[in-house]
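Sync notes, pocket subgroup
Present: LS, DG
LS reminded everyone that the earlier model was apo-only. Rerun requested with S-adenosylmethionine included. Inputs:
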Amino acid sequence: MTRPQWCSETIIPSVRMSYKASRILARVKTAYQKAVVFENESFGRVLMLDDAVQTSTADEFVYHEMLAHVPLFTHAGAADVLIIGGGDCGLADEVLKHEAVRSVTQVEIDAKVTELAREYFADINGSVFSDPRFELHHGDGAAFVRTTEKSFDVALIDSTDPVGPGRVLFEPEFYAAVRKRLKPGGVLVVQAGVPFLQKHSFSMAIRNLASTFAVVECYLLTSPTYFGGHMALGWASESLKPDSVSLETLMERHAASGLKTRYYTPQVHKAAFALPPYIGEMLARAKEAR
Ligand code: SAM
């Protein structure tokens, strides 16, 4: 009998999460990171980069629906969307479900990750690559934002944690460069970590967003893949406030879109901005520290 293989993620130095891999599908060293794709009985197919879980086919809908639909149903008229990172392409799949979206520009640093995503994660990104609205660039997202002349209604940062190549995507210079590329009324949403376990990542993201944007908030989701309690997404805009749209309007927009969602609903959208005090206080402190 072969011994089970375990793939472990060290979430912080004192906490490790292990997944029993029923099958390892790929294990490669890319130019930027170590990538592993494996199968797990509860999570389905899982992508790990540098020993950190990025996505799983069983629960990706939670994170991808909340990262895409909360800003897109709030903005409503978004036509041009920028995605930085997002190598598994599950986020682009959700964004492209919005008919008003006419272009999705995605900048992923690691071509090998998108190659693995095409090969092993077609269940979550199947329709993306043949969609004429989708434009994929391989390169550093920070460099792209500094040099592009395009403008966007919504920018989504689907990054790894602030170590390795993802570090620049949490810096104030990067957020300032994104701000210049947003159209009036535009909004930026960023992956801001799990506040309970990743206090530093969360506070850094919020502090740096607050040093750049007039409106900074955060909202929450609970995804088994991102272990340790609620995961936070940071919201930043010059003018678009998340509470500027009523529940009734969100319900109308959601119904008109015909989208079938498994985590997102207009009620979940609204509730996601209600913060437990321990997170609300961290948010307030990080905003004050800007
Ligand atoms: N949802 C995931 C999470 O929070 O764990 C993130 C998923 S997505 C796979 C993260 C992607 O960001 C990776 O494919 C990684 O290669 C990419 N990435 C990291 N740094 C980047 C950079 N500077 N520019 C563009 N993409 C970057």
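DG: The mean pLDDT is 96.
LS: The chain is about 30% helix and 30% strand.
Action: DG to write up.
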